[in-house]
Automatic annotation (TrEMBL), chains A, B:
Xref: Gene3D superfamilies: 3.40.50.2300, lambda repressor-like DNA-binding domains
Organism: Halalkalibacter alkalisediminis
Coiled coil, from the record: none
Keywords: DNA-binding, Transcription, Transcription regulation
Protein name: LacI family DNA-binding transcriptional regulator
Tree of life domain: Bacteria
Keyword DNA-binding: yes
GO molecular function: DNA binding
Keyword DNA-binding set for record: yes
Taxonomy of the source species: Bacteria, Bacillati, Bacillota, Bacilli, Bacillales
InterPro entries: HTH_LacI, LacI/GalR-like_sensor, Lambda_DNA-bd_dom_sf, Peripla_BP_I
DNA sequence: GTGAAAGCGCTAACAC
DNA sequence: GTGTTAGCGCTTTCAC
């Protein structure tokens, strides 16, 4: 059996509670006793038991990370690793551990979240997606459980949730305007899954920019796809089959853009000569495409970092006021636009 | 306060222990009582507390995932998301949760692992890397703590550790032979960090193949780089500066190959016309490069899945015999070789 | 088949 | 400043 607080107490000739106080570094313990106790801990090789502590404390010092169908599509996208990197950094700084959701379907995920909450597995939750008709967020709100959303709540009172997001509407609008400034009027839009709020925001920004410029919206210029790699390729086929082809493309995601570039190359359409492309995210490999892609850097790492900061704040201050953090984006101009 | 086993017991007119047995679905409880208890649980909205259970049980039903400096380099590589996808799947199937390491340096990671082990945070550990002079593995062995390595132990008695790996030596050898069959004799090698065992194995396979073919090894054809994206590009500069340039390249990682392709394109070196390339991993976007890359599919998902299977086996059967699992690899021929 | 009670290792009143 | 003690919510002997 492992060495416990009691063993240490005996060894140091103090009460268990004193040892506990030394662990917590209570100011009410004299330096002398602290030293004595610490020495005893060293000698015996004492290490606190997390479960006991969590049970007594009702605090686990771990954060739950909830991803959309964790195993299937999510992880194909470098967005998630990168956002977790940001989370990880802040969590480590603050002494928190990370617990990962593993469910595949929406139901499984909801079940897992319930376990995390009811089972006292985590102190707070980071929601890495925001989906239309999501069940998880309403549950968390109803339970009044600390959580932070990366993204934007949809069909839910914004005042009820703390979230960290980009201004995706504006980003898409800017990007569209940028293409128009370059002289493009026939701008195609390759969006992601319409169940994700980010997709909706992108589309609205695109529409708004066109409308402001009095360019009529063409439904056939808009294609949505869930799959990242094939998605991009399929979309290109659709768009290039239109009689009056677009001269520029806005693509939801850099990874998709790889597929788009590939397909265009196969079709012998030159980028940026015959087709300009701009996309979103600026993941690491975005600068490794040929041509390198112009894309919106959404500062993924920061999204994770900030969200974690908010969450830990919420956990520590019970009546932490609801907060919205908008992480700025930045258009990174490379070679794919003309 | 949440509803506990006692509340359920009262409601169902049984003892707490009975409720516990119903949860465990003990065969010694009559169907009638089971029904009654379950109904009470439903009515009260009972959910078991994990920490209490773990404390009493000495089992957490969670697995620790340990990555090399989690936040920095690791996650840039799609290898990790993909292997976690495999882990995640098996873990979910078996009712295990996942706990992620967040440390940045080797020391931090060792500390975290100690916490996981001593603190009873996890039932077992998945080591996602195998590094020369690693401290974590010796610790785990010394503690006799259940763990499975993805990769191959180095400088450690193989009989002491269960591991899941590819035959990286053979893969590299095959790949080299493949290039030689295509007529290449001047084959460059762009390897990863030499502290990782996989790099060593790749190199040995490469050397062996050359030696078998009586082609002298040229040190200047071998370059190592840690960074995935710039790494590839830097390496190309080095190799292309050699008077007698290689005509083929073996690259440690698909992501690196993106950098290599980019740089070669910039230098106006045609692939596969002037240079053949083959790399390792076959991550999702590997089929989206131009030209598409020939690469060794190492079945990353399976590595994670199998390792998790082994680990859970080890956890459940105390004297589970040490096991080595070699996941087969497969050369995926695409357009980058000639 | 079911109940009573001890105990997992720790924290936090409450005493002194 | 430090000790005593009662839990935290669950499992698991040991009775009956």
């Amino acid at each position: 059996m492992a060495v416990t607080i009691k063993d240490v107490a005996k060894r140091a000739n103090v009460a268990p509670s004193t040892v506990s106080r030394v662990i917590a570094n209570s100011s009410r313990i004299s330096e002398k006793t602290k030293e004595r106790v610490r020495e005893a801990m060293k000698e015996l090789g004492y290490h606190p038991n997390f479960n006991a502590r969590s049970l007594a404390n009702k605090s686990t010092k771990t954060l739950g990370i909830v991803m959309p169908n964790s195993a299937k599509i999510a992880f194909q996208n470098p967005f998630f690793p990168e956002v977790i990197r940001g989370i990880s950094m802040k969590a480590y700084q603050e002494g928190y551990g990370l617990y990962l959701s593993t469910g595949q379907t929406e139901e499984e995920i909801l079940e897992e979240v319930e376990q995390m909450v009811y089972g006292g597995r985590v102190d707070g939750i980071l929601l890495l997606y925001s989906r239309v008709n999501d069940k998880v967020m309403p549950f968390l709100i109803e339970q009044n459980f600390p959580f932070v959303l990366i993204g934007r709540p949809y069909n839910i009172d914004e005042d009820q949730v703390t979230y960290v997001n980009n201004d995706n509407f504006k980003a898409a609008k800017t990007v569209t305007e940028y293409l128009m400034l370059l002289g493009h009027e026939r701008i195609g839009f390759i969006g992601g899954n319409l169940n994700f709020v980010v997709t909706i925001d992108h589309m609205k920004g695109y529409e708004q920019a066109l409308s402001n410029a009095n360019i009529p919206l063409r439904k056939d210029y808009i294609v949505h796809h869930e799959e990242l790699q094939e998605g991009g390729q399929d979309a290109v086929i659709e768009l290039m089959s239109i009689e009056q082809r677009p001269t520029a493309l806005i693509v939801a995601d850099d990874i998709m853009t790889f597929g788009v570039l590939k397909m265009l190359a196969d079709m012998n359409v030159k980028v940026p000569g015959d087709m300009s492309i701009v996309s979103f995210n600026n993941v690491m490999i975005s600068e490794l495409s040929s041509p390198t892609m112009t894309t919106v850097d959404i500062h993924i790492y920061e999204l994770g970092f900030e969200a974690t900061k908010c969450l830990i704040g919420k956990i520590n201050e019970p009546n932490f006021s609801v907060k919205k953090v908008i992480v700025p984006h930045k258009l990174v101009k490379r070679e794919s636009c003309k």
